[in-house]
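Q:
Got a chain?
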Amino acid sequence: MYSTKHIAIFIFTIFSLFSCILADTNKNIPLVVITWDYKDATEKAWDVLHKEGKSALDAIEASCSLCEEMQCRKTVGFGGSPDESGETTLDAMIMDGYNY
């Protein structure tokens, strides 16, 4: 029996190979990679990229904003984990290295 980890690695490998093949045809494929299991935030980023046709920067902003609103894992957004001075702060920064 295959574990979830093995299946995820297999799917990632196939997707990576498929992406490399399509890269040769100069077609852009939207891709959303998220490090935690924030399903709603991932879907929001995908919708911004795929359905709305906006930029990756727009997708990141929309996804993070949704997670703040939903208080993902109870550590993001109002009521989340406090900073080093014991206060809950909402601060974020997105850098677009493409322009530099």
In short: The chain has a mean pLDDT of 78. The radius of gyration is 17 Å.
